[in-house]
Amino acid sequence: MKKLQVILRLETVENVKEALSAIGIGGATLMEVRGFGRQRGHTEIYRSRKMEVDFRSKMMLEIVMEEEKVERAVAVILEHARTGAVGDGKIFILPVDDVIRIRTGESGKDAL
Amino acid sequence: MNAADTGFVLVSAMLVMLMVPALALFYGGLVASRNVLSTTMHSFVLLGVGALLWPLVGYTLAFGPDMHGLIGGFEHLFLRGVGMEPAEGSSIPALAFMAFQCMFAALTPALISGAYAERIHFQAMLLFSTLWLLLVYCPMAHWVWGGGWLMKMGALDFAGGAVVHMSSGSAALAAAMVLGRRTTMGRRAGLPHNIPMTVLGAGLLWFGWFGFNAGSALAANGLAANALVTTHLSAGCAILGWLAVERWHTGHFTVLGAASGAVAGLVVITPAAGFVEPWAAVVMGLLGGAVCYGGIFLKSLFHYDDALDVVGIHGIGGVLGALLTGVFACSSVNGVDGLLYGNAHQFFVQVLSVIATVGFCFPVSFVLLRLTDRLVGLRVPLEKEVTGLDISEHSESGYQF
After folding, report:
1. Å between A87 CA and nearest CA of chain B
2. Which of A46, A48, A51 minimises the CB distance to B249?
3. Mean pLDDT by 10 residues, chain B (401 residues)
4. To which H or E segment does residue A3 belong?
5. How much is the ipTM here?
């Protein structure tokens, strides 16, 4: 099993989620995050005092899936999250040892 | 007794009362979210302090029989002799005038709270406000309105440029100096947490200010209409004055700038509202917005942390208003001419009133703050400041997310 950590623009989250559902991904966790990368921050001004804001607001979607679905999922995310401008986000792929469903105690593939 | 005058002054008293929670919103939005309740409380609780102290002793210190031009006598202690009948030469019940003034007495110490926000102990704030109300505000009100020496000298202060704004601005400077800088000053953790709240507060202040300035005519007459019009024009034009300078300086028109400009314009017109013509209010507003924008740089220049710019807006705006009243006053409005109409003496009197007000309010406030610090301790320890005063002083949070 693999976990995809997907950093997204705020406005692409809904489309990505729907597209993932359509290929049979049945669950995900969404987090509001802030970070920095190639996309520049912005300046805020309060009573003439300038304040550089380096960390931008992004969304992070965490999805755990069977290994064979990863390629398809990545393709779908690239299709729906890409605008072509700096700041579209990133996908991190990590190994997952096991998954356990708390309600039933099932583990492995059955718990996804 | 005149029914229209009485009704108008009673409604004006209510409008001025609204300025206290309006100020709580204005200041509350400007602090970090962990201090929103304490900052709100710094204004709101003074409705209580004023309601207790003013009828007991404050009113008579300010408006009791004059003693050597310095302070009022104790004739009206516990409101003795202040009843439903008008005082001599007045068209409204003495109680209506007392109530109107009671709201001013709650609002003025609340204005200072912008300087000590985010780092003062609540009980220290209560003690200082009590002392300040009795030993600074009451004498000032007596000097200017209660038959004291500034009034006899002919100083013009229609609704409180000196009594309310210069006095609180001077006290704010003292508070910022005695308390020292916030640990969050200049950092992201110290940024305003809710600017829409601040703008709402500024709007409600503006609304309440109609009672403050027009109500100071103490009658439903042409002078009240003049004061209402000059108040509105100055506030509106000061938005434009502030934004113009801000655009030139930073390249942006900020919403906080618009709200700050409006308040600056209201401050500047306060002493002048019943002495100048509407066209002069336009000039005063434009100038007021521009000059107070400059006023907010004083704290960076002198390295003190006047957290919410009380000195820059109320102090500088108050001084500017007092001086410009001496320039633009016109005898066709209220019987007194200023510099522009050939009466240089009036301008000189206004300069003197500025020196007297700041010269009295700043050192006395400074001493009262030091005294409060000695008695109960002014500043919260670093750990509580970082946690935020809402939790460390009041055991509450403004927001549950």
Report:
1. 23
2. A48
3. 97 98 98 97 98 98 97 96 93 97 98 97 98 98 97 96 98 97 79 96 98 98 98 98 97 97 98 98 98 94 93 97 98 97 97 98 98 98 95 96 75
4. strand A2-8
5. 0.80
